[in-house]
Amino acid sequence: MLASGCQTHGERAIKLQEQSGKMNRSSDFGWFAICKTGTPGSHTGTWKGQLVPSNERAMRDALEHEKLNPGHHATVAHD
Length: 79
Hints:
Helix content is 42%, strand content 14%. By secondary structure, it is an alpha+beta fold. The protein has a domain at 29-78. It has a 3-stranded antiparallel β-sheet with strand order 2-1-3. It is elongated and about 55 Å long. It starts with 9 loop residues before the first helix and ends with a strand. Mean pLDDT is 75; it is low at 1-8 and 22-26.
């Protein structure tokens, strides 16, 4: 009988777990643009942008929403 396998040393295994946890943290929360401005002919209720991993990207989404909808005041929120 022939058997082969791989064994990871304890310290290395702990380090790998820590790294995988850091990689998954960004999926637990994110940033999004949100606008509650209601003007005739625009969105009704609250407009919420796509959930993104960075504050800068959410700010760009908010600015883009304001360009498309003059007079709106979109902000950035954290989930």
